[in-house]
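Entry 14. Structure prediction run on the chain below.
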Amino acid sequence: MFFKQIRRNAARNRRGNGLFFGSLIIAIVAFYTLLSLDKQDVMRFLSTIESDAVHKLMMLIPFVYVISLFFVFFLVYFACKYQIDSRRREFGMYLMLGMKRSRLFFLLLCETLWSSLISLLIGLPVALFLTEGISLVTAKLIGLGIIGHRISFSGDAILWTVCGFVMVQLLSMLIICIPLGKTEPAKLLSSDASEKQEPMSKRKSSTFFIFGILLLLIAYYFAIFQLSSTELSALMISVLILFVCGILGTFFLYRGLGGFIGKRISRKSQNATGLATFTGRQVQENVLFEHKSLAVSSLLLLIALSCISYGIAMGIGRTTESRSTDFSIMGTEADISAVLENPKINEMIETSYPVYLSMTKTKFDTNRMIDALKKIPKADNLVQNFHLEYILSETSYNHMMSAMGKEPIDLSENKAALYSTMGSGEGSLYDLLNEALKSKVTIGINGEEYSLLPQLYHDNIVANRSITLYTALIVPDELYQKLTEDTQPFCQNIHLKKSLTDELGLMQAIQKMDGCLAGTGLQYDSYLGGIGRNLFYTVAASYLTIYLGILFLLISNTLVGLKYLIQQRKNKHRYITLLILGADTEDLCCSAKKQIQMFFTLMLSVAVCNSIVAIFVMFTNLTRLPTGTPIATVAALAAIALIVFIMTEIIYISIVKRTACREIRMLEITDRG
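Output returned:
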């Protein structure tokens, strides 16, 4: 009988608080997905070529997990408090009928464990299915192929997910039950008394509201105009002012928002009909009581949107980096030719060509290029350090462009092209050089003027960035022979057959060729090394930031929803009074729905405005999308993320509306006298 009661109460709690139950399942999925990261195909692959970096990332996972538990604890605490407060009369009746407090505590403990078990039984299979899907998709995207897929089940991840989840549940319930055990039954049976509002004058409320807006505007100014400073001390001061003004401005804005809403209601109250004034006053009171919760939720949502935006942009930017060549082999022409004639190796090769890259002692006349850079803002550092000491032959670069499916460059009629491997990374060098080249710049070589093509070329000339060229000059072959110090090719580039990469997957095909070249004694670089670092940054920047973003999105919405429901329950006597006065139940439900929409809108509006500024600053001052990132792809994914965000908010608002209306309809049945 006792355990039947436990199951019945737990089932009732799940039905009555689906918002909390759904959030717990999502938290379980997020925990397992994070903790099983080392079992993903992409991480297994990375551990073979970037073991040190992967090890450092895995050491970071427990820290992220603990932070996640910390925030989830507050979510669970508020949800459990909401459930316990809704059952105060039930607990008071148990005690009046003779139930011992220890047995009541044991009842609640068993209900918590049973609910945790149900959540885990639903969440873990969903998490396993999701991680398998993620593993398969990432394996396909990076070219590992289905052949390289392995089941990503992790016993340790399940163990720590269960332990962390149950610990948070039990700790929250323990903290709530301690004061509950000291409460007398008569007090539990009495109706909840509504809180008294803190008196605040109109002047004080307006001061908070205006001061909050001013602080946010100051934060926006420092974010947009002051974070581009190159001086570390000035940058640190700007960041400090930005955070202080942003956080205080958000709290002050919500602190004075209640008074602003009150003024608006007063102006419209004469023309209001039905329950419009009641609805507005309820929203005003909710803001007055929960202004701190609104501010915290708004800031958490700001962090969530920023993290998700950063993760999507960086992931797409790095995974779309062009593949210029598969292998770069160093050695003498005779040794390389002997290796490539091996039938086992030769049958895998699509194209092969020598790369002529060399240093030169020729002094180039770069005055016109420097003059063009001087006209560009923020190019002072580049003006002082611009120099040319490497040259690259036109034919070598065009071989690579053709293999990549791009148009070759034409350097006839005294033309040259500027090249930099720094262009494909993050930073402003690419933009500054590209802007300067648009001015039809010329460069002097041995007394002759050569026109530079009006764009910077940056496709990597070797497989694994074994060299990093700050700047180099692509010149016609005849001029290269005159300027070079070494007539031998720098390396031999190899591109694998498309049929091979389609059959095995890119990574499997490169690993197969790598195995053949390993025993030749030649030094070589492969695309694996470059993509290893690329994928590591993708995982570190995208996977973790999107994970944290989803977690903060979950917590912020759940917190706002629960805070509204708690306030509605405390003020249920007002709804009972309206029912006694003849108000219709559906009219009260309509009023509650409008309150919920307004309450969420107040949180979302400030968070979205802050997020727009934060995301703009993030991709203009703090970081840059890698050069060549398809804007259309980023825009499409941003649109998808926006749609998912809107759908998430709609789902949360709908759940809170349904819960609020159910409680109002229950008042008609149980409390209407």
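The chain is about 70% helix and 5% strand.
Filed with the rest of this week's runs.
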